[in-house]
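Q: How do we represent a protein-ligand complex in a form that can be generated token by token?
A: Start from the inputs.
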Amino acid sequence: MLATYVWFPTRHNWFICVRLCRLLEIESDQCGRPAEGFDSCTGQQDTRMTSPVRVIVVGAGNRGDNYSQFATIHPERMKVVGVADPRKFARMKLQQRHKIEDENVFNDWRSIVERQKFADAVLICTPDRLHKEPAVAFAKKGYHVLLEKPMATTVEDCTAIVRACTESDVMLSVAHVLRYDPLIHKIKELIDAGVIGDVIHIQHLEPVGFYHFAHSFVRGNWRNQAESSFALLAKSCHDIDLIHHWAGARRCVKVSSFGSVSHFKKENKPAGAADRCMECSVENDCPYSACKIYLDRMKQGHTGWPVSVICQSSLPDIEIVTEALKTGPYGRCVYECDNDVCSNQVVNMEFEGGLTAALSMVAFTEEICQRKTAIYGSKGELSYDGHEIRVFDFLTQRTTKHTALSNAPKNSGLSGHGGADYHLMDAFISAVANNDPSLICSGPEETLMSHLLVFDAERSRLESSVVYCGEGKRA
Ligand SMILES: NC(=O)c1ccc[n+]([C@@H]2O[C@H](COP(=O)([O-])OP(=O)(O)OC[C@H]3O[C@@H](n4cnc5c(N)ncnc54)[C@H](O)[C@@H]3O)[C@@H](O)[C@H]2O)c1
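Then emit the structure tokens for the protein with nicotinamide-adenine-dinucleotide bound:
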């Protein structure tokens, strides 16, 4: 029963599971088999639990705040009963919104695990380097875990999280939100239905966006590997996970990768530029100017991301944003930061049976994270632009268009990633309420396998060599 719980959402995962059992040294017959006729990611109403699923939010920043809004949309399905965050503003915001009792408001997650279990699940939304410890501790206390991606920043820590959840018989959902996007799910359905025949090649682009990259990966939380993680893990573990998912039961056998920090370096600082945008005489000609990214948006009444991120202790207004740019990290010249993560990276993969895949992650784009994918098969070509899927059939030479409806509410904290944030929460809460891990699309086994692939790709980049997956030490 334990293993069925954690290991086997789908029949297609069975092969992955057997490999993973070896990695974790678990007997494969402990794993059980996927339920017949199961169809995940389609959303399901809760039937078992009559009272709302009780959750604790650990890390009430941008993501924790967003996910907690599921309780506002569906109070009958989820209740936020606890919060932990060292930032008073962040935890108070959630306490007020969800009427959390004083005794359940903490400035550190450790205080919660010292207490008797008082909720069904935990949403772990702390910074990248603070995932493993709370994930393992909460799993051991018997909480079901929704864990932000990346799972953790080392192979050992990712593996330890999966092991703790397995041994504690709790569900783990990693926030690979794209897996819950109805269009992404549709792509998998079309592949599995054979509409393009055998999948031969997958080409996938992650356009990070020029100001998004400057915000998050040059000035912000993910700029420096020692403080967070390498860019491929922080940004594109989603994308490798999608490629791995679309490749199906085929294992990736080899990977190579190249990438570096381009442009955002001291030597590219324009003549006459100051160290801070607020004092810079050439700021007007700079697309990465903090005045344009934050202050101009604020002046137009935009107080959401990325403006909200730079105001850590209060709601944004013009004075607070101005002060943050004068003194804080987000007002720095992009050519004078301590950034060291890649701004562009390519990953080439070969899967069993000769399926090849190529991922490009690039900072310098107009689109903000609007992925583009082309999947080439023996009978047709499938392309995806984030809005619709087109399938060109080689035999009939006709193109069919596919869309997928999302019932995610608009203009809430959960409308992010095209509504996929909502669908992730919907699936996790349903899984807990129904005691049914098959509703989770991003469970431990596939997620760990795709994370391992990310570590292999980064090792290839660092060593300038082709890496045979699973062999040798990972990055
Ligand atoms: N799934 C996605 O698409 C997606 C998107 C963005 C970020 N993320 C990931 O989500 C995580 C959180 O990102 P974010 O943008 O919300 O960051 P954030 O900085 O806004 O929030 C993190 C919060 O954790 C709090 N925290 C720090 N130490 C803590 C502790 N000991 N106990 C409790 N709380 C603590 C911080 O004070 C902060 O409020 C990161 O791992 C990030 O990589 C995922």
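The pocket of nicotinamide-adenine-dinucleotide is lined by residues 58-64, 84-87, 90, 108-109, 125-128, 130, 148-149, 175, 177, 221, 234 (CB under 6 Å). The chain has three domains: 39-176+412-439, 182-264+339-405+454-468, 267-331.
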